[in-house]
Please model this.
Amino acid sequence: MLSIIHNKIHLTLAIAFLWQLISVGLVSVGVWDQEVVWINFGLIILLTVVLPKIHAVGLFLISLPFMVVLPESLIPDLPMWRPLVGWLFLVLVVKFLWSEWQPGEGVVNYVRRVAKEFYEQKLNPWDKWLFAFVALAAISLLAADFASHGLKQIIFLVNIYLIYISSLIAMSQPEDWDKLKRFVKYSLLVTVGLGFVQYFATFTTEPYYFWQYWAMLVSSAYYGQPLAEVLAYSNSWFSAGGGTSSLRMFGILQDTHAFAVIAVFAMGLWWSRAKVELITSRVRHVFRDQSRWYFVVLTLIAFAIITSGTRGIWVAMIFPVAATMILIYKFKARLLGALPLLSYTIIIILFLISPWITASFNWVRAVAQDDNILRRVASVYDLREASNVGRLEIWQESLKFSLRNPVGTGYGNFITSIVEVKEGASFEEVSNDVNLYYNLPQKFVTAHSLYLHILVEIGILGIILFAIFWWSVAKQIWQALVEAEFVYNSLNLFFVSIAIVLLWLLAYGLFDVTILNERVLLYLMIILALLNMALRNRPKTLF
Model:
């Protein structure tokens, strides 16, 4: 049986994918009991051991869109991905250490050699800045009111970092890089595809009933009952304004903001998978080389970005657009910037024709919706709009707090900057109180800016370390493109695609902390692993 699985890897992965699609789908609609999830969990546990390293990581990625919470586990509402990441890491480390063992070598020398080789051949200089950031976060807990909660958040970060290390271990051959890139592309596209399922499923029912159904069944399965109860009365799934509500696309994600980032990731990976002909010399040839399906998928991803209704993502697009124009006109890299520029154009066109799209959708909807995307775009500049007023207020308060407390509240303790903590109160008591202004429990309130959030929690040194990390990433990508003289090839297209995606993500960080969403962070770690290995091997013709 195990040999059959090993010899029929693609068939095995396809069957595992289809089973999870069917089983989680039936669990989410209430047809099957949540206990079925244990079968999925056990299946992934088994296949992780049997499959080759790169396919074990691939299995995790194609399963990620279907990873829900484990029913009745020792830890309530435990996301399935958390123990599975740990198990994947453990299995791959054992396989790696076994493959590196040399008979007759002493244990001390063996450990020293393997650790040195892994550090030199796998880890990137930017990793030391991540270690420093996490170390500072841990130190900040010494002054935190809720140190135990902060420690849980640090464990969460370490848990996610294991997928990065696992990916590095799995990539030992040139073809492994290509395989992992395909796996993450498929995973992202499936997640975006589930967004379309959610979006069009609402056409047959009234918004309120959809809202309650999705919260209490689908979101409950994916994120647990406590979050489902919050989503049942407060979420970002609908945009309210002018007495009307407009539907947004979010799929299986907790909110539309995280979904929008996932769609941006998917767009970047889709750019990088474009067919590249070495004889291509004109922009029109770049477009001609792609199939019709390529542009269909690109347009669907662009549609997902605008129907997410996430204004921060829309505004943040100014930065990648500017970067792409500089790339094209200053550095004469027209071919590398062609697909991103086309994508921005598609997004703008979809914005302009959105009233007609909405009118068409309303023909088949059970209840007509006022999905006025253009009005939502215009609201970005309306300082009297409720969401903008709240964001400006929290920015001001966060900045004032940081000036008074330059060392921060302690990692994971943002809550103590917005509420008065009574002596002896537990984090659960404080965090579960509903913030009447945002209509959310206090634990879900953030600074609505990644940089202010870090500044409040771990102070100015935390912001400096965070900036140095991303500067290290940007510097290496830039050096790779300059040394390659911006030649149009698959590897440079990958570098440009990832650079634009990361710039878009960081620009969006001005308006939200969505980068800390569990699924966003998991995909980000995989992307950084791919980028790391591509940068390391660029002098060779590996990719």
